[in-house]
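Researcher: Next sequence.
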Amino acid sequence: MQKRSIDYSLLIVTLMLVAYGLLMVFSSSYYMALTDAKNYGNDGLALFKKQLGGAALGIGAMILFMLVDYKKLMKLKYVFLAIAIIFLILVLTPLGTELNGASRWIRVFNISVQPLEIAKFSVVIFTAATIYVNRNRMDTLRYGILPNLIVLGVVCGLLLLQPNFSGVILLCVLVFIMIFVGGAKGWHLGVLGGAGGLAGFAVMMMKDYRIDRLVTFTDPWSYASDGGYQVIQSLYGIGAGGIFGSGIGNGRQKYLWLPYGESDYIFSITTEELGLIGAIVLIAMFIFFVYRGIKIAATAPDLFGTMLATGITTIVGIQVIINIGVVTATIPATGVPLPFVSYGNSSLVIFMAMVGILLNISRQARRIAMPAAKPQTQAGQSEAVRG
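Model: Next structure:
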């Protein structure tokens, strides 16, 4: 098979999203870091410099996975899964960093790593490889559902110990969509979805703060000084942006009014400073990214490539929907970063590594072309002329 060039349109939109993110991390974090002597030494550029370093590492990871044949990842599925599980266990030890009652980060060589990001990467690879190996038995419960369900259960169980319920939701939806595309039976998926929904509801009701989030979501203004404060400030920022925004650096919500404006709520800062136009441009770039990901999945040379592209595109799409939904008060609050844009080195590096895999698959994509017309014989030509 003759290899094609990479999907340059996907590469360009990815780099545009990263540049967009760098600009907004700089704008949204400068004042907060400048006034925080304890964590950032009054260095307004502290978070921007870290994000810039993450972008550099991410580009390196993207190039690496773009050059290494994606088929080799199949042999490493257990390696990546083991690494993810080890990190998910380590975050529960004293090595973990606790914030707001949850331990979700560990420090490696003075770099903060979020094990959930590694788990996303490993689950995509493991699920894609398992579907490929069992491609002729995906209609059975034993081979089509059970292997992925066991791994998902282990990973989600460790996430709940952090606790990280939003990560559990992300991975469950991801695996469900992948096995659906992989050819699992409809009734299997129906039973799995129903059981998963009931289990998720039961787990959610076990913690008071999750119930409070649902109650707050129904009427955040009734809890304006407590649970509804963050989403209300987010809506103020979005509303203040208008059509064209206040301009880069001129937003007000980043002056310690909106918590986590550089990470989970960066879309609000973006809309405040760049307006509706800036928000539409950002959303359009994500839509184009998902479109190219679907195109790569459809033209992949084998099922493993199709499932990898499906998983990567799905996780990006899900996170965009959840993040923007939370920021605009469309869905209950939960901590999910905006891919490529929100502050966070481990998230940025992992997502760019996954883009490298997409680019690698696109380079080996099969050509879709109409079959060539058969040349007519002289006798055939004579018949055509007489006809």
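Model: The chain has one domain: 8-366. DSSP finds 15 helices and three strands in the chain.
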